[in-house]
Amino acid sequence: MPFTYANSPPVVFTTAYTEYAVRSYRLSAVDYLLKPFDFATFQQAANKLLQQKQSLPTTKKTVGQADTLYVKVDYKYVSLRINDILYIKGMSEYIQIFPSDRKPMMVHTTMKQMLDQLPEHFIQVHRSYIVNMKRIKETERMRIIIGEDTVIPVSDNCKKAVNDYLTAHSIGKG
Fold this sequence. Notes:
The strands form four sheets. Strands 7-6-5-9-8 form a five-stranded antiparallel β-sheet. The chain has a three-stranded antiparallel β-sheet with strand order 10-11-12, with no helix packed on it. With 174 residues, the chain is α+β, with helices and mostly antiparallel strands. The model is unreliable at 58-64 (pLDDT under 50). It has helices at residues 21-26, 39-55, 59-64, 111-116, 159-168, and strands spanning 12-15, 31-34, 68-73, 76-81, 85-91, 94-99, 105-107, 122-126, 129-132, 138-139, 143-146, 150-153.
């Protein structure tokens, strides 16, 4: 992809030369700090940069908005509807994807790479499991139940993420 200023990272210019100010704004700089500058000026520029960064969509949300994912299985690419994924099991250098509408698929990728391609309702609940939280039947005592007979453990390290998701998407006290 050719470089364009539209897809460049946000930049704050810091220089002792005033003649670069106009040029910096032509390049869509977030701010321009003329040296020497004090901490308050630096902090204002940092806040401006942070506000601009927070208004940009993240890669995960952009990618995660797609409803289809293509996974390489054996020597072919298979189309997989993201909402059909029940859970994913990590196995060393491979993952096994368990969709609701077909047999499990073995894919040569890492858990992190897979998680980066999925929307926010997919949560890593254990070192070896990613779960589609929209497809769970219930949770009980550090276990997630999917379907009639699939029980997935929730590790201590992932308990907070699971509880945060459930709290944000539940009704009732308790």
